[in-house]
Amino acid sequence: MPLKLMYLTSDPTVAVLAERAGVDRIFLDLELRGKEARQKNMDTVISHNSLSDVAKLRAVLTKAELLVRVNSLYDGSKAEIDRAARDGADVVMLPYFKTAREVSDFVSLCAGRVRTCLLFETPQAVEQIDEILSVPGIDEAHIGINDLHLGYKKTFMFELLADGTVERICRKFAEYGLPYGFGGVGRPGTQVALPAERILAEHYRLGSGQVILSRAFCDVSKLADRSGLAADFQAGVRAVRACEEKCAALSEQEQRENHAAVQEIVRMIVEKIQAAKELG
Q: Among its keywords, does the record have Ligase (predicted)?
């Protein structure tokens, strides 16, 4: 089965272009609580979207699902989830939880009105994964390797893919019969240290069913002219799908070889980052 491709945006025009290009799910990010402090001095984007964006996106989407990542549980969670459900979210994602109690409360707040997705991104949640996944009412799960690598005090987020952490969590998701995915991916064919082709092959090796198209896939914020955006999205999605066909045809031996290559690339990236820190 092809991966479910998710793209983060609050812009209805961009969402429609992504949908028409074959993106399966539009991802609206409302999470702000604690995020800036956790990701301080990192090359990440903190979204400043609004609950009002749910209805705006719902009004223009005809095929793609709408996933809304709300804040981690707090006094305003009920109002957030109620509004997201009322305004047309298909899936609501809970980030940065640590306990089964939080997950149970989240599921209760959703009350069957939307599908529920858990974003595993704390070591505490991983440590209690059996208890958490035993909570009734969980529909799917995703591994947030950015915050999770910070929680484990790793140098580079894809260390979790190289050291077996992502694999262990994925096996647990599969054990409990949940659809799952992890992290994000850029565009195949681009010259980066850890190519998208390698990451996509890992998704197939681990039985992942979904992935977020990263900022590197199509960074709309850096485009001075959006006239070519539709074609750019289409080309990007075609590149991912073509790469997936190759990944689906890999033998078990080829999958193992790709994983070994990912481990070596990650090792070199970590060494480079650590050396730069020592010099800096």
A: no
Mapped onto helix, strand or coil, the DSSP state of residue 91 is: strand
Whose CA is closest to 104, among 68, 140, 137, 144? 137
| CA–CA dist 205, 263 (Å, integer) | 14
Integer Cα distance of 183 and 203 in angstroms:
10
Residue 239 and residue 218 in contact, taking contact as beta carbons nearer than 8 Å? no
Going along 88-219, which residue ranges are E strands? 91-94, 115-120, 140-143, 180-185, 210-213
Among all chains, which residue has been given the structure tokens 């987020």?
Answer: 157
pTM, 2 dp: 0.93
Closest CA to 96 of 121, 130, 70, 67: 121
State whether residue 183 is helix, strand or coil: strand
Whether 193 has a pLDDT exceeding 70, the answer reads yes
| Rounded mean pLDDT, 148-174 | 98
- Report pLDDT digits (tens) over 1-19: 899 999 999 999 999 999 9
Amino acid type, 259? H
